[in-house]
Every structure is written in structure tokens, then in C-alpha cells.
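Run log, item B.
One chain of 96 residues. Sequence copied directly from the ordering sheet:
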Amino acid sequence: MMGTNPVKSQPLSQPPIVTSAPYGNLAERCKELGTAIVQMADVREKVRPNPAVDREAYNNWYRENDGLGFHAHFYEQAAKIHKELADLHIDDPELV
């Protein structure tokens, strides 16, 4: 059977391989973190006492709502995002 071409079988139809971006949903997670921080700040601001009316209440509110509160609440989430940005060598020269 020289000179005859064997019938080639057609490849089975397969869905295309889709890969995700190497940074996953990093942009969405950054947006969610920013939104959560703003919402927390907004809630805290709504209950802020007027220092002119009640200085002691304001001082207590201030102690409970300083940056350390945000740090404790969001540190782990922010640290994970920061590490991922650093691992991908993504930086913002304006933040340096």
C-alpha cells in the first residue's frame, strides 16, 4: 500500500486552556481593602464626640480610634497584598 495516505483522525474538540494573570485578583483585593478602610473610618467618624462639648469623651474616642486600631484590623490583609506586590516586583515610585 505504498503511495496511499492513511486517514488521519481528527483531534477531539477541547476547550482552550485559560490561565489567570500571575497576580490573581490583586486589583480587586486592593480595591476591597481600600473600601473597607474608608468604611471603617466613616463609621468611626460618625460617632466622634465634639471636643468642644465633651473633651474627655473625645479623648477616649481618639485613643480607641487612632491609627493602631486600623493597623490591628487591616495589617494581615495589607501585608499579604504588599508581599504579593513585592514578589511580582510591582512598585509605585511615587510611594517611595
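Observations after the first pass:
- Residues 55 and 95 are 36 Å apart (CA to CA).
- The mean pLDDT is 80.
Flagged for discussion on Thursday.
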